[in-house]
Amino acid sequence: MNVAIKILEKKALKKLGKDKTNTNSENPYLEKVPVYKNGKVAKYKTQERPIPQGLSKNDAKILRKIRRRAYRWDMGFSCCCIPIRFGWSAIIGLIPVIGDFADFLMALALIKKASKVDGGLPKRLYGMMFTNIMLDLAIGFIPLIGDIADVFYRANTKNAWLLDAFLTEKAKALQAGVVQDPETGSIVEMPDELAGAEGDRDVETGVTRTGTIPSLATPAAVTPAHSGRQTGDMTAAPQSAPVAPVRNLTPPRAPIGGGLPGRQITPKDPRDNRGKAGRR
Prior knowledge:
It contains eight helices and eight strands, in the order αββαββαααααββββα. By secondary structure, it is of the alpha+beta class. A hairpin with a 2-residue loop joins strand 3 and strand 4 (82-86). The longest helix is centred in the middle third of the chain and has 22 residues, at 155-176. The chain starts with a helix and ends with a helix.
């Protein structure tokens, strides 16, 4: 693994020199992309720089975070009175002594975060990053002049570009499976430790993972809930609610011969009338 890391370090430093990237002033987080209209450049739009394809989820997350923090600390603000962008690093550095140490600790935390990439950082690259923040600290100790120079010397931006170049070469090597030494031409196979966790390399390559989709053809049977209490393996049957008596809504039938409902009328015997007539 050490051999592969050293080769990636050589290729990263060679890439920065070949591309002639101004690691001190070029924005590591945002880039301007031309917008074409009718075959001609109509305007430029600012967007986030893409993550190199082939990186693991961990490496992609760290690179994006380092880029964003370096931009905020070195180029986050602009002013009409100052023809150059500045960030929180320059503002905090205005505080005598304490501000310089606080700026150094923030930059050191950025390096610690960058060293958590899969397989770690090469020692030479780590030393270059640490040298950048030490120079920034030394410049900040110079009264007045150091505060002005701190705006122009952007240690965090330099370190972000170093990490970007290293991870770009690492992504290419991971896709190829091997890495070639630019000086000797020897080919070394990429170790598994640099690839991150298994199944984690398709995060930035545009591949979407698909999980198992449950079948929707037959819905699962739903067991009705019981209000009884369960004791061991026996379940008490729920008590049934009392049933209300059914009322008879049919109106009572009127009795024969008239009268009030529910009252019986006994017909008179005609002999009773004869007895009364004899007495008269």
